[in-house]
From TrEMBL:
Protein name listed in UniProt: MAR-binding filament-like protein 1-1
Biological source species: Zingiber officinale (Ginger)
Statement: the UniProt record of this protein carries the keyword Coiled coil: yes
Transmembrane segment boundaries: none
UniProt keyword Coiled coil present: yes
Lineage: Eukaryota, Viridiplantae, Streptophyta, Embryophyta, Tracheophyta
Length: 800
């Protein structure tokens, strides 16, 4: 009975003991294995009864003591039962039973979890992998969505059921494995027994009675445990049914959620592809915008250079315009001064024209006076001709007298006697004749002096007349030239007036053009100021745009960084999730918390994704606004370029107008110089005319003086002629007296014959000489020559 009880006890108690001892810690497991081996060996040794009594008693005592020492290890059955009761009481938390009750090591638990996960994954590859392949496999970057939590929970519940089944299988395997080991130990114990084995057999025999008593209690416990296990099995079947229904419902929900998740994943993929395309397009637009910005910067720099050039040109043009305005003002002042001078010159010209008219009137008067003088000179010439005729008559009379004397020479011979006879009377008469000769010599000297004076005066007057004629001719020529000059001056005056009128019209036009240019310059300055203001505003807007673009770029870079960080975080989170899935299977609480955190993070990521979408939309709007603003700036830049071209054209026109103005001003200055020269020439000519007028007035005065002198000389000549006529009459009377006294003057006549012949020769030679040198003035030159002849004759007569 004891052996049967022991064998039954070990056959029934060893599986729960091993099953309870299997999931324990490795140290307890080793101790339990040693205890079971000892017990099995004791049970096996109990079948053999040794004949030796005393040795067996001692051995039994030792076996009793060893059995008593093994009793604490037998309490593990109760611990295992308690573990089963805990499993029954915590049926709702299936996953938590195995980890809370079974104090396994971390490595063994990880290995068992990995084995169970691989088995579960192999069982559910057809359900999870096709549906969740897009979730778990997209480049190991995407995150598992929160909708997959139910599938994960179902997987974990299936894992729990599989764990329970695997625990049962392992328990059966351990029992099956441990039983042949016990048989082997028993077979080994059937070998030749040693002293210790015999001691153990004896101790087993002694302890069989004690263990038989304990068997009843253990059997009761076993029956209660079996009933409890059956109730637990019923509950497990019910829970398995519930779990199957839950699995079906979960599978349906999972299919729905998987479809929804597939749709969401597709939508997310489409959105992500659209976002990626949008990001690519945004990158492309950003690159194009950067290129456009660089181009715009270059254009702006070029525009700045052009604007600086234009500002310098405008400054230069302003300076040139100021200089031109100053020059124009100076020239306007000079023109005004010249106009004043011209007015003064016109006044002077008018005055001089009046003077010229007065001079003309005076010249006409002088011409009349000259005509009168010429008539007087002609009258005097006529008188001289009459005097010459009288002298010729006297010459003829002298010739007649000479003929008479020649006729009387013949009578002189006859008279010589009478002369000789009359010499006595001659001596007496000589004294009278000497007195008369003295008187006659005095008269001759006075007459010679008078004739010399008259001849000198006549020669002087002739010379003066020649000079006057020449002067008159020159004056007439000068008057003609002066009339021609006056006509030319009038023409020049008319041309100068026309030029002045043209220049006044040009000056008015130039003033109008200058005013228009000044207005255009003011308008251009206003436009330049407006353009500078617009450029400053454009620069400010450009700076704002650049700052906004830089902010957008910074925000875009930050967004890219955030996206890359979020993607890296998502990758890292996926890696962490993949790493944490293992840890989640180890700790469901932590997994739930991490899933909640991941769901929150996913919600945050979705919110961030939505925010990123909004920000991308805002960035697109900003980019569109920036593109519109860039287009507007391009339009403004094109307008500015057009305005700059217009300004350049205006500046070119202004420069051309300035050149034309400068040319006109140069022409005006040249014309003004010419006018000044002409004015100077006119002034010099006027001065020359005034000097000529003064010289003419002086000549007029001289002519008047000479005319008065000539009048006086003519009067004196008339008086001299009258005196000469009186003298001729006296001489006639004296001739008569001499004729009466011819007889007394026969000797004188005879001496006078030779002298007369000489005088004739001289007269003929002098006439020939005078005809050679003075053919034109025969009449005028004849009188003084005859006078000189008479004077010489008289002198010779006086000398005789």
């Amino acid at each position: 009975m004891g052996l049967l009880a022991g064998s039954l006890y070990w056959s029934q108690a060893s599986p729960p003991f091993l099953s309870s001892g299997f999931p324990s810690s490795p140290l307890l497991a080793a101790r339990r294995r040693a205890a079971t081996r000892n017990l099995v060996s004791a049970a096996c040794c109990a079948n053999e009864e040794s004949p030796v009594g005393s040795a067996g008693a001692s051995r039994r005592r030792t076996l009793l003591l060893v059995g008593i020492s093994v009793f604490p290890f037998l309490k593990l059955r109760a611990i295992a039962a308690d573990g089963l009761l805990v499993e029954e009481s915590q049926s709702n938390g299936i996953g938590q039973q195995s980890y809370m009750v079974q104090p396994m090591s971390f490595r063994r638990r990880a290995k068992t979890i990995k084995q169970r996960v691989t088995e579960v994954d192999k069982d559910k590859q057809d359900l999870i992998l096709p549906d969740n392949q897009d979730i778990l496999m997209p480049d190991k970057q995407e995150v598992i969505m929160p909708g997959n939590q139910d599938a994960i929970v179902e997987d974990k519940q299936d894992d729990k059921l599989s764990e329970i089944q695997s625990v049962k299988d392992t328990m059966l395997e351990v029992v099956i494995y441990s039983y042949p080991i016990c048989l082997q130990q028993a077979a080994l114990q059937n070998a030749p027994a040693s002293s210790f084995v015999s001691f153990l057999n004896e101790f087993g025999i002694v302890a069989s009675g004690v263990l038989g008593a304990l068997y009843a209690t253990s059997q009761k416990e076993m029956t209660s445990i079996e009933s409890h296990v059956e109730s637990m099995k019923d509950k497990l079947t019910e829970k398995e049914a519930e779990m199957s229904s839950l699995k079906e419902s979960f599978e349906k929900i999972l299919q729905r959620e998987q479809e929804e998740k597939k749709n969401q994943i597709r939508n997310f993929k489409e959105k992500e592809s659209s976002l990626l395309t949008q990001l690519d397009s945004a990158n492309g637009t950003a690159a194009s915008l950067q290129l456009e910005l660089n181009d715009n910067r270059k254009l702006v720099e070029e525009l700045k250079g052009c604007i600086s050039d234009l500002e310098s040109n405008v400054a230069k043009t302003g300076r040139d315009k100021k200089l031109l305005e100053a020059k124009v003002k100076e020239k306007v002042d000079s023109i005004n001064v010249l106009q004043d001078k011209l007015c003064m010159l016109s006044l002077d010209i008018s005055d001089k024209e009046k003077n010229i008219q007065d001079l003309k009137s005076s010249l006409s008067e002088k011409e009349t006076e000259c005509a009168q003088l010429i008539s007087n000179v002609e009258h005097s010439r006529n008188e001289h001709a009459v005097a010459n005729s009288t002298i010729e008559e006297l010459k003829q009379e002298l010739l007649v007298a000479k003929t008479e004397l020649s006729s009387k020479i013949s009578s002189i011979g006859s008279l010589n006697q009478q002369i000789q006879m009359l010499e006595s009377e001659k001596d007496s008469a000589l004294q009278r004749v000497q007195d008369l000769i003295k008187d006659y010599s005095d008269l001759e000297s006075s007459s010679e002096k008078r004739t010399a004076l008259t001849s000198e005066l006549l020669s002087k007057k002739d010379e003066q007349l020649h000079l006057l004629e020449q002067k008159l001719e020159l004056a007439l020529e000068e008057v003609k030239n002066s009339t021609i000059v006056i006509a030319e001056l009038r023409e020049e005056k008319d041309s100068a007036k026309a030029l002045l009128e043209r220049e006044t019209i040009r000056m008015k036009k130039l003033n109008d053009e200058l005013q228009a240019n000044i207005e255009a310059l003011e308008d251009s300055k206003v436009e330049a100021s407006n353009l500078s203001k617009e450029l400053e505003e454009a620069k400010v807007s450009y700076k704002k745009l650049m700052s906004e673009l830089s902010e957008i770029q910074h925000s875009f870079v930050e967004m890219e960084k955030l996206l890359t960080q979020s993607v890296e975080e998502a990758k890292f989170s996926t890696k962490l999730m993949s790493d944490e899935l293992i840890s989640v299977k180890e700790n469901l609480r932590r997994n739930k918390e991490e899933l909640d955190i991941s769901s929150k993070e996913l919600n945050d990521i979705i919110e961030d994704h939505a925010n990123l979408k909004k920000e991308l939309v805002e960035t697109y709007k900003k980019l569109e606004n920036a593109v519109n603003e860039l287009k507007e700036e391009r339009k403004i830049a094109s307008k500015l370029n057009k305005e700059l071209e217009v300004l350049r054209k205006q500046i070119q026109r202004d420069s051309e107008a300035r050149k034309t103005l400068e040319a006109d001003l140069d022409e005006a200055t040249k014309s003004l110089d010419e006018m000044n020269k002409s004015a100077l020439l006119l002034s010099t000519e006027l001065e020359s005319t005034s000097s000529r007028c003064t010289s003419l007035e002086a000549e007029k005065d001289m002519l008047l003086l000479s005319f008065t002198e000539q009048k006086r000389a003519v009067k004196e000549a008339r008086e001299d002629i009258e005196d000469a006529q009186n003298l001729i009459l006296k001489l006639g009377n004296e001739k008569e007296n001499l004729e009466r006294r011819t007889k007394k003057l026969e000797e004188e006549l005879s001496s006078a014959k030779g002298e007369i012949l000489r005088l004739r020769r001289k007269i003929s030679s002098e006439k020939e000489h005078s005809s050679v040198y003075q053919p034109k003035t025969e009449v005028t030159a004849g009188a003084p020559i005859t006078a000189r002849k008479t004077n010489s004759r008289r002198k010779k007569g006086g000398s005789t």
